[in-house]
Write a structure and sequence with these properties.
heterodimer; A: 236 residues; alpha/beta; six-stranded mixed beta sheet; five-stranded mixed beta sheet; 15 strands; 19% helix; elongated; B: 270 residues; eight-stranded mixed beta sheet; 13 helices; 8 strands; 41% helix; 16% strand; globular
């Protein structure tokens, strides 16, 4: 039986490398903050390695401590330096210096894609109250209910557009265009009291007024999506 | 404190200037001090319809630029007491109008007058926007015809979103519908939209229906607002509209096809 409580092994890490080529603080900090904002969950408490290899030998008088503090403030965890120029004074900063390696894996693309999907799911879980419009939507106007349903308690005039991420209810005449589920919700529906729409669309699949069944004109109708086809049924 | 009423439509040629002239004259006839302002810079018509084109010295743009004062620019109507006209410039264009300039003029007029009628140009660009911006009430003139109705709907949307009252969150502009060039015979023949059709699409209160009338063309050419012609149907319809604007109840006349008697048809009267 072994008495060992610790073990030392070799390991390879994939870590984000922050390449810095100019250290004029304001520009650097703004750009860094912008990048982090694009995928906050991904970057939060992420260990990073600060790669100083791109810095021109003439610009080596840099304030590394300010950089480290700033990184920590926006949630990054600098853990080491890389590609340090001999003349740079990094001893005071208590971060190890890694041996140079020419292998840097491109992290950008794949990581970003994963993150985008996650963000969308989270948004849809947030429930927002429906957007209610009480006055007629006039020709040329556009109403967009973001992340929720749209309820219109008046008519929707010809030449106007009512758009929603969720369902659309028009308790009046629908004469303009109605686009439901615009962020891809295939379960979204359109309901109206008087159907004379110019165009109907659910999750990007559309139906023109031309193709609307004659028997449904000016009736109370609901529109839903079946596969890629829009189905219109009378509301009784 | 004056009430500012804009006469607008979106579509051109539907009867805005005719209506502005008639409404302005009608209000003045009832004893209210009224001024009609022509906002159609570069294409002025109000002075022709009012019959004062030979008395125009200065214009609205001159006043805005400080080149003349209101007293020098306003033209007093020769026929009707209490009625004044502020003509537009013919040589300049809409860019000569500025919001601060228009506001200054309207503020100055507001002290003196009871009603300020703003005759809007056609369209939804600067001239029309300037005319409707300061309005308290709006008269939307529409022909019973699909393109006119759609354009009127558009201008209603703009009134709801781009007027001063909308921007400052005040009580919204009060909207009135005037249908012009109405021909009951054609409505019955299914060639023209009916009053009910237009009301259904626009959903605003009907102020008046002005029947198609030869008297209107005659009135323009003579420079006499049609409301002064008491025998014409159009003149009478405008009179009714004034009454309704002032809060009185009036039935809508001239909506039915009138069967002309043999003698009438023989003599060709209208």
């Amino acid at each position: 039986m072994s008495d060992e409580s610790i073990k030392l092994t070799g390991t390879t890490l994939t870590v984000i490398a922050l390449h810095v080529d100019r250290l004029s603080s304001s520009l650097l900090f703004d750009q860094l903050a912008e990048k982090v904002d694009q995928a906050p969950q991904f970057f939060y408490q992420s260990p990073i390695v600060i790669d100083l290899g791109d810095i021109h030998p003439d610009n080596i008088a840099i304030d590394l401590s300010a950089l480290i503090t700033h990184c920590r403030n926006i949630g990054l965890r600098p853990m080491a330096y890389k590609n340090v120029h001999e003349a740079m004074e990094v001893q005071q900063l208590a971060l190890p210096v890694l041996a140079s390696s020419s292998k840097d894996i491109q992290l950008e693309q794949p990581e970003k894609e994963t993150i985008v999907t996650q963000t969308v799911t989270e948004e849809r879980l947030i429930s927002r109250p429906s957007k209610v419009i009480t006055r007629p939507v006039r020709s040329g106007q556009q109403v967009y209910a973001e992340g929720t349903d749209l309820i219109v308690l008046a008519q929707v005039s010809e030449g106007s557009e009512v758009i929603a991420d969720g369902n659309i209810h028009v308790y009046g005449a629908l004469r303009g265009r109605a686009l439901a589920g615009v962020k891809g919700d295939t379960n979204a529906r359109i309901f109206c009291r008087q159907m004379s729409a110019e165009l109907l669309a659910i999750a990007g699949n559309f139906l023109l007024s031309d193709s609307l069944d004659e028997s449904l004109k000016n009736q109370a109708v609901q529109v839903s999506l079946d596969g890629e086809r829009l189905i219109t049924t009378l509301l009784t | 404190m004056a009430k500012i009423i804009v006469v607008t439509s979106g579509k051109g040629g539907v009867g805005k200037t005719t209506t502005s002239a008639a409404i302005g004259t009608g209000l003045a006839l009832r004893g209210h001090k009224t001024i009609i302002i022509d906002f159609d810079v570069g294409l002025r018509n109000l002075d022709l319809i009012m019959g004062c084109e030979r008395r125009v010295v200065y214009d609205f743009v001159n006043v805005i630029n400080g080149e003349s004062n209101l007293k020098q620019t306003m033209i007093k109507d020769k026929r009707v007491e209490n009625l004044f006209i502020l003509p537009a410039s013919q040589t300049r264009d809409k860019d000569a109008l500025s919001q601060e300039g228009v506001k200054r003029v309207l503020d100055e007029l507001a002290d003196d007058f009871e009603y300020i009628i703003c005759d809007s140009p056609a369209g939804i660009e600067k001239g029309a926007l300037m005319a409707l911006y300061f309005a308290d009430e709006a008269i939307v003139v529409t022909n019973p015809e699909v393109s006119s109705v759609r354009d009127s709907d558009r201008i209603l949307g703009i009134l709801q979103s781009k007027s001063r009252r909308a921007e400052e969150g005040l009580e919204p502009v009060k909207e009135h519908l005037v249908i012009t060039r109405y021909n009951p015979a054609r409505v019955n023949a299914g060639e023209m939209l009916s009053v009910a059709d237009v009301e259904d699409i626009l959903a605003i209160k009907l102020l008046g229906v002005i029947p198609e009338s030869e008297a209107v063309l005659k009135a323009s050419n003579q420079g006499e607002p049609v409301i002064l012609n008491n025998e014409s149907e159009a003149g009478q319809a405008y009179s009714d509209a004034i009454s309704r604007l002032l809060g009185e109840e009036r039935d809508h006349r001239f909506l039915e096809e009138q069967k002309k008697g043999f003698l009438k048809r023989l003599l060709g009267a209208k």
